[in-house]
Design goal:
34% strand, Barwin-like endoglucanases, alpha+beta, 6-stranded mixed barrel, 3-stranded antiparallel β-sheet, 11 strands
Length: 199
């Protein structure tokens, strides 16, 4: 009888230990899920009152005008449409009649066979954005839900910067040519809601 009692007691103890282990594992699992969801919440930041503008790359073949001669670094002297060059001075890059991109920065003209480039030398893609890095970190994922479609549902990547981009101001790259220029006018607006998530 004492031995049966002892065996039953050991079974109960083993069962209790097993239950404790199962409950501990379950609690740890819940805690991990809660911690990861709270980390995700902390990583996303949203705020109101943002000024959104657009920038694009003009195409020389869409801007005929009298020509102006310039010196392009590592290329030499070439002539381009004055309207085209004026747009590039504002927008940063344009697509020449030769098919390569012409950029204006650091007080000079530069050629890129890859296409328009951002401030880090990467190819600009539709939806790249220029930001003030003291407000939005480099490479953050950004959504601007108050923009017109299709931009409202797009996830932007904060890869570019610009001299005129200060504070709560985001400049969205809309592409090349006159259709892209029209998009810059369509999305330019005040009081936008911006949410971003750090990597």
């Amino acid at each position: 009888m004492p031995q049966e009692f002892r065996l039953a007691r050991e079974r109960n103890t083993s069962l209790k230990l097993l239950m404790i282990l199962v409950l501990t594992g379950f609690c740890l699992l819940l805690q991990t899920d809660f911690a990861s969801s709270s980390v995700q919440t902390r990583m996303q930041t949203c705020s109101e009152g943002w000024y959104i503008t657009g920038y694009y790359a003009p195409r020389e073949d869409e801007l005929p005008d009298t020509t102006e001669q310039i010196s392009v670094e590592r290329v030499g002297d070439l002539s381009f449409s004055q309207k085209f060059l004026t747009e590039i001075r504002t927008e940063g890059w344009g697509i020449t009649r030769f098919g390569w991109a012409l950029g204006y920065y650091s007080g000079g003209w530069h050629r890129s066979d890859a296409g328009p480039l951002d401030a880090a030398g990467n190819i600009l893609v539709d939806g790249a954005i220029a930001i003030d890095r003291s407000f939005i970190p480099h490479n953050a994922h950004v959504q601007i839900s108050t923009l017109p479609n299709p931009w409202a549902t797009k996830i932007f990547r904060a890869t570019d910067i610009g001299n005129g981009i200060v504070g709560q101001h985001i400049d969205v790259f809309t592409g090349t040519g006159t259709a892209a220029e029209e998009e810059t006018f369509r999305i330019t607006s005040n009081n936008n809601r911006v949410c971003f998530t750090r990597d």
